[in-house]
Amino acid sequence: AAPASAPASAPAPGPSGPAAPVGPAGIDAPGALRRPATAGPHVRMLHGLRRPANWLQLVRFGVVGGTGFALNLAVYALLVHPLGIVYQVAAAAAWIIAGANNFVWNRHWTFNARDGQVHVQAMRFLVVSLLALAFNELALTLLVEAGGLSQVVAQVLALGASTPLNFLGNKLWSFK
Known about the structure:
Distance between the termini: 61 Å
Oligomer: single chain
Shape: globular
Radius of gyration: 26 Å
Helix content: 55-70%
Structural class: mainly alpha
């Protein structure tokens, strides 16, 4: 004899306990309580990739980063050549000036986060920037030392590898 099947309105057990009553063809019974759906990080990421606003933010982030890069080089060249400042000091000063520029533009234009507390956002931006810099330095060193790439090509690739980390850190934490 075939086993008796459960009635159509009986709860179907789930991985974390009984589920809501299910009607015919898997449709929830009227008035049934449902467990809240929890999407994993990969599902949330896929939904985020489908939002045009996120892509626009990424483009704006790239534009801000590009202008920051140009500003960094201009300040560095000015400090080293006409002013004769030691190149390590010039590099640090240029990094700070470009970073401040990037913070302002990302806060006001890329992420439109003017309502947040500026000092909290600035500290978070600094933390994310330093983490992205550390990741960039690690990737750069591996590409040059282990990969045998030229330093310039390796820096381009390292910047490309660290940019998503920098973008996501600022989007999801610094300017949330």
